[in-house]
Amino acid sequence: MAPNQILAGCVAGASETFLPQYWGMDAAELARGGNFPFYECYLGPGLPLLSWRRAIAEMRLYDALARPHGTPALTLFYPSARDEVPACWAMCNVAGNRFWALMPGTPGFSPHQVFRPEDGFFSWEELHGDAFGPQVSLAETALLFPGQTRDGQPTNDGAPLSKFATTPRIELGGRDLTAAVNEWAGWAEALTEANIPHDILRESDLTSTSGLAKYRVLAMPAALALSNAQASAVLAFVARGGKLLTAGQTGVMDETGAPRTEKDLVSALRKAATTRFDDNPGSATVRGFAGSKQLWEAERAPEARRRILDAVTSATSGQAMWSIEGAPAGAVVAGAFQQLDTKAAVVHLLNTSAAHCEVGTTAPEQGKFHPEFPPVEGLRVHLRADVAKAAAAPGKPPVVHWMPYPGTERVALKPTMAEDGSMSVELPALTQYGILRVGQ
Question: How, if at all, do strands 423-426 and 380-383 pair?
């Protein structure tokens, strides 16, 4: 391929079981031939904004596919109404993806009509261009996606996949066909909702050149299938001081799904875990994708979610690279990155209070979802000392700007510096979406 050429392929759902087990088509393998992995966020009669927890988890998995190429993943949305479009774009920014396009025929608009001056988010990006560009996530926790386990497991009910005409997630209440994917999704949703910084990894990342070098914590829910090399890489990570969190039976199968004969390796993985759940807390707390007119039921187990969050917070000793304070549960989702050229820290915040549904109510009908964004007050962003120091000019405090969407203003904010060099910034009210840039 010639320099600067783009080769992208469109696949819906890198995590799901239906594509690889029925069609023999795996998004991760298809992505090897391109340099811009492309997520088609197709939810059938689904609602992207109401599905923000699960959609962002999936986009972060696509980020794992894109990471070896040094490019962001692209995401194509099918919004149910015009009012969802800016939120879909903002979700991409939170997850580190880039907004690709909209499909023709989406109710109420076409791709060429949606970017009105009052929408204008591509123009808004151009206005605040210093907040976009090549970047790496500010995360030291890695969450492994158990793709090998998914491919070696039967579906939950044992029924043939041919009973589904297309991706069945909405038909299944937003969940997947295999327990491994649901367990991973529960962990990913919990970390995303709590704004705990994390990256998604694939099994191949365990043995790659960069591997686990940047991470302090590795969470491996439902990772039943690992190769000998992958299991050894995990043990080496723990030997270097890394913290390992597991759920279910870890490494009891090889990478093909065959039972592992090296019982000593299985035992070593069990002993290496800082926290080991013998049950599957992720499956108990997963919410999944939200469907049009779907009943919003009290199916999540709060205790299971708390166990996941407590385990990760304990493993990081509460020293995350960044954190959001003052956000009501489920009201704000954030993602933070360090720019490769300037080392500036860039934090994206999306108001998700418009995506709240009371338990026992029915989700809006597709095409009739008109979200309202009550302002979220009292938010503070905290940056760890090393992050704040890297962003600032030598010997000077960092320069902080807040860029709210919608709007054209760029507000200078004064950070509060702690004795240890960490910093916090109190934000103006968050209406829909905004970016905090900390640089020089």
Answer: antiparallel
